[in-house]
């Protein structure tokens, strides 16, 4: 009874009803909520706290920003169904909120486009060093094959490209990155791709905010060469794998492009197959080298795909069955 009372108290305010419907549509920062609702951030923060205390919303801090999304589906789904039945979403406020929500989506996409336009030379500089990215992505899809992706965790998600690539095949998808700027870009891209139900969160690759066995597929795509202690990053990725779960690592083979340390903050100049396979084996995975993708130019970098599988039965779930696991 206490849970029901807390929910009804939290919803006994028109602003909080509007907030719940807005966050149901897409994850929003407190600042974005304030802009849509035309209210001050302190006031919006207070309403968010009340809804979060009732379990209807969850809050995530990313640098100076706080993002808000729906709470556990087991609690929020019946509440939203009841609101739909009561036609709470109708009315002038709802129409205005939806219009301003469309503006938020457009602003996110525009910000992502502007960032890529401003940094296009840097991305092109990196990509020119190895085989075309679409070839790498095709190899990744082939490596994972037709098996269900299940609960996907993309470590070092950056702009969210791996979630774009595999999100529609996943039961749930979470992207992890340390950079709030990259996460905001990822949100814009995922919104544009129609993947707003996928999550991105600020976190460290050495301390993933996920319980043991909570992911069926983990991807480290062009991330490991930034790691000061890659063995620990591999071990932490393996920790969250379920029985039968798979870790796909995509990174450079050993090379001598020393300028990448200073120009692009690479901590490691590629990896030997034996190194990566040893790290996977030490973490309890059965490793194998999937493929070496060599660029056409003489000095082009080689991209390698490694796949490690945790022994045990595969236990993937159909899409959207268990959003609680993504909490």
From TrEMBL:
Signal peptide (residue range): none
Single GO MF descriptor: S-adenosylmethionine-dependent methyltransferase activity
Domain HTH arsR-type: 1-90
UniProt-listed SMART domains: HTH_ARSR (SM00418)
Pfam families to which the protein is assigned, alphabetical: HTH_5, Methyltransf_11
Name the record gives this protein: Metalloregulator ArsR/SmtB family transcription factor
InterPro entries: ArsR-like_HTH, HTH_ArsR_DNA-bd_dom, Methyltransf_11, Methyltransf_Superfamily, SAM-dependent_MTases_sf, WH-like_DNA-bd_sf, WH_DNA-bd_sf
């Amino acid at each position: 009874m206490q849970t029901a009372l807390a929910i009804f108290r939290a919803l006994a305010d028109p602003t909080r009803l509007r907030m719940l419907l807005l966050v149901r549509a897409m994850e929003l920062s407190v600042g974005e909520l304030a802009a849509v609702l035309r209210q001050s951030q302190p006031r919006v923060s207070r309403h968010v706290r009340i809804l979060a205390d009732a379990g209807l919303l969850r809050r995530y801090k990313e640098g100076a920003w706080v993002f808000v999304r729906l709470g556990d589906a087991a609690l929020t789904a019946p509440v939203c169904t009841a609101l739909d039945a009561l036609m709470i979403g109708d009315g002038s406020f709802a129409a205005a909120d939806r219009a301003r929500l469309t503006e938020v989506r457009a602003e996110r996409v525009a910000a992502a486009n502007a960032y890529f336009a401003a940094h296009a030379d840097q991305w092109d500089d990196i990509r020119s060093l190895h085989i075309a990215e679409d070839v790498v992505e095709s190899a990744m899809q082939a490596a994972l094959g037709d098996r269900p992706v299940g609960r996907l965790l993309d470590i070092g998600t950056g702009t969210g490209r791996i979630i774009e690539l595999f999100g529609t095949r996943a039961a749930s998808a979470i992207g992890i990155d340390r950079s709030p700027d990259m996460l905001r870009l990822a949100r814009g891209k995922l919104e544009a791709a129609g993947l707003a139900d996928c999550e991105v969160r600020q976190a460290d690759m050495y301390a993933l905010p996920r319980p043991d066995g909570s992911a069926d597929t983990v991807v480290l795509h062009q991330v490991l060469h930034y790691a000061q202690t890659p063995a620990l990053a591999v071990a932490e990725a393996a920790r969250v794998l379920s029985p039968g779960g798979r870790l796909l690592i995509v990174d450079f083979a050993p090379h001598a492009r020393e300028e990448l340390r200073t120009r692009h903050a690479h901590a490691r100049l590629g990896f030997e197959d034996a190194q990566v396979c040893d790290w996977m084996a030490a973490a309890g995975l059965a490793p194998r080298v999937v493929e070496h993708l060599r660029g056409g130019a003489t000095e082009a970098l080689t991209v390698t795909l490694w796949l490690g599988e945790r022994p045990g039965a595969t236990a993937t779930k159909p899409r959207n069955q268990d959003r609680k696991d993504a909490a």
